[in-house]
Design a protein that fits this description.
two-stranded antiparallel sheet; 3% strand; 5 helices
Amino acid sequence: MDVYHESQVHQIYGRTISHIVLATVAMVARLGARKVSVANLWWDDLTIVLALIFLAIQVLYFSSAVAIKTSLILLYHRIFGVIRRFRWALAAALTIVVLYFIVCLIVAVLECHPVAFYWDKSIRGGTCINQNQFYRWNGVSNLLIDFMV
């Protein structure tokens, strides 16, 4: 059995769909809890809805990751925002998350020079970054930011 040539499409779809379903259930429960407790919806609720939308269409991975992190930071602000030092820490964390998003977006869009080389490899002199390295280090930085948040 050659595992390198076997398709894993079904496993990937299964995991993706199950995560989307779980995320949807958690978000509906969260919004339901807001309604039952007569608490007003706030920015953290809006950004978690955006995160689920981005996750569901799976086109905007960076946007989804940043929206989730932003939602958590805004939730922390809502809960602990009365503490001045904590507000500064949250502002710093939000700044790091936004910068992470900007850098990843720029690198993802401009990973090839010229940009058209990404889909047209016949362009002479075109080059692209090492995608494996980019996604590996993106994963490491994403994990470190997750720990920070």
